[in-house]
Amino acid sequence: MKFVMMGSGGVGGYYGARLQQAGHEVAFVARGAHAEAMRRSGLRVRSELGDAQLKVRVLDEPAQAGPADLVFVAVKLWDTEAAARAVAAVPGAAVVSLQNGVDKDDVLSAALGRERVLGGVTHIATVVAEPGVIAHTGKLQRMTLGELDGSRTPRLSAICDALRSAGVEIVQSDDVRRATWEKFIFLSALSGLTALTRKPIGEVRAHPATRALLLDALREATAVARAEGARLDESFAQKQLELVDAFPPTMLSSMAHDLLRGNRLELPWLSGAVVQRAEKHHIAVPAHRTIYAALVLHAG
Predict the structure, then answer these.
(1) Which of 1, 43, 53, 215 has the fewest C-beta atoms under 10 angstroms from its C-beta?
(2) pLDDT in tens, 140-150
(3) Where does CATH 1.10.1040.10 sit in the chain?
(4) H or E element: which one contains 16?
(5) pTM
């Protein structure tokens, strides 16, 4: 199959590399020093699941790829609308966002038409360690995909088969909107606490005070998700905390990496989005309000 990675940072670069290793045709859309390094020296992946050094096709715009089967959108959340307009020019391609927010599929559907959009989330810890180099922490590389209407289609099956051939753990979901909310709850809390403390998840979960704040953040986002119609039970937050306990202790969220590097933060689309939606439903979210207030002056 032919894939286009709209955004070739930690997530897009990693999955694109694995798909190319499996024999699929992949085009990487990238800019700046990362793109220059990929053109000059190829794309390198460092991972417990196996390192890779690949010669890759790097583009400035997704339309340069020509017809494709699927475009992965893996840009920062503030670039979603611009990315949606850009990928609309890829002939015949379905589009799936692996971003962290809960509005991403609506933005893509408005620009492309709902019929071209698949829902998707991923659980993986990756970062651009240096231009042209993707570092993968741990062994988790799971992707959940589904049609927005919950149906099972030939294109969904073909895409899932291609990803499995690349060694990716795939979950086909009949309720991908719920999966999107589940990831958002987890990620907004994880990103918030690792960025707030500037510490990896192992230290956050080990100290009673930060562990309690992490659980509060999970509970608050769960309450907002339930108010928004997500089918989650009240025990969901506690189960997510147990999931956090299984993560590599050195894991640091991408937002924490961005903060430490002085980059722009996705904060308004994570804890900021929890606060905004909570106000609509008159739900108290003091943990996420604290995270937002403490980081907003660094958000860029």
Answers:
(1) 53
(2) 999 999 999 99
(3) 178-298
(4) helix 10-21
(5) 0.87
